[in-house]
Amino acid sequence: YSAAITAYGKGGQWEKALELFQTMEKRGVMPDTANYNAAISACGKGGQWKEALEHLQTMKKRGVMPATANYNAAITACRKGGQWGKVLELLQVMKEQGVKPDGISYSAAITACGKGGQWEKALELLQKMEERGIKPNQFSYSAAIT
Fold first, then answer.
1. Which UniProt keywords are given for this protein, alphabetically ordered (predicted)?
2. Could you please report the per-residue DSSP string of 14-35?
């Protein structure tokens, strides 16, 4: 199911991706982190950041603990939707849940803050990234200064 959901998402058909996700559930297949990741990513690609966050919440309610990749998909969805505040909230939730942000998490957050005119927050995130031993790449630096 994950591959098909991902394919729909990449094709810009987020509604079909979510329909397939629901069909999977109706057939008694319990979604795992990979299935949720595919659905959350599809929402992000379709500009549906609220829907992405709903899937992340549903995941937790059903006892499927989100991994870094799931949070990254939600962070990316919020970044694309211009929701830098939600991105920062997600980073905080990750910390509270004991899920370690990676370079993707930080780069997406830095980009969200930069595009949202929050350059001070972007620079703070860049510093946190380095403090945590995550080596920033050219995209991280570029996002922080634009």
1. Repeat
2. HHHHHHHHHHHHHTTPPP-HHH
What burial class does residue 52 get, using C-beta atoms within 10 Å of its C-beta: 0-12 exposed, 13-18 middle, 19+ buried? buried
User: The pTM is what?
Assistant: 0.92
Domain 2-145 = CATH 1.25.40.10: yes
- Tokens representing 138 are 């050219």
Closest by CA to 74, choosing from 48, 97, 107, 98, is 48
Look at phi and psi of residue 133 and say left if phi exceeds 0, alpha if psi is from -120 to 50, else beta. left
- pLDDT, tens digit (0-9, with 9 covering 90-100), for 17-40: 999 999 999 999 999 999 999 999
| Helix ranges, 27-97 (H) | 33-45, 49-61, 68-80, 84-97
